[in-house]
Amino acid sequence: MQVEEELIWPKTGYKAMVSKFDRFMYEHVYTRYHSEHCVYLTKSNYGNYIKLLLYVDDMLVVGSNMQEINVIKGKLANSFAMKDLGAAKQILGMRITRDRKNHKLMLS
């Protein structure tokens, strides 16, 4: 999922955008990592989790339940101008490889 940079950042300014995004995440029961201010986490009562990683105009959403991932992606799309790019193939210059059989992600 990628944030449409030309629609969001120039109109609101970087600090205002980050503040709006933080409010959105807290309203949806996400906790921001203290050591990484661009990483958010939520856990459900059923043991599922979603991690959301934000870097400038790129966003990676990972989790244990695809239905819950789709729900938050829909809510994000309703609040921000976004484009869903599908399954991530790379992030920050690192290639993502999936081993679905063994439930693993590898970065290279």
What does this structure look like?
- This protein has 108 residues and is of the alpha+beta class.
- 33% of the residues lie in helices and 33% in strands.
- A hairpin with a 5-residue loop joins strand 3 and strand 4.
- Helix 1 packs across helix 2 (14-27).
Q: Which strand order do you get reading across the main beta sheet?
A: 2-3-4-5
Helix/sheet category: alpha+beta
Principal-axes shape call: globular
Number of strands: 9
Give the percentage of residues in beta strands: 25-35%
Largest sheet: 4 strands, antiparallel
Low-confidence stretches: 1-11
CA-based gyration radius: 14 Å
Distance between the termini: 20 Å
- Can you give the helix content as a percent range? 25-40%
- Helix-strand topology string: EHHEEEEHEEEE
In short:
The protein is of the alpha+beta class and 108 residues long. The chain has helices at residues 5-12, 14-27, 66-79, and strands at 2-3, 31-32, 39-43, 49-55, 58-63, 82-83, 90-91, 94-99, 104-107.
Task: Produce the secondary structure layout.
Layout: E1 2-3, H1 5-12, H2 14-27, E2 31-32, E3 39-43, E4 49-55, E5 58-63, H3 66-79, E6 82-83, E7 90-91, E8 94-99, E9 104-107
Give the tags.
single chain; alpha+beta; four-stranded antiparallel β-sheet; 3 helices; 33% helix
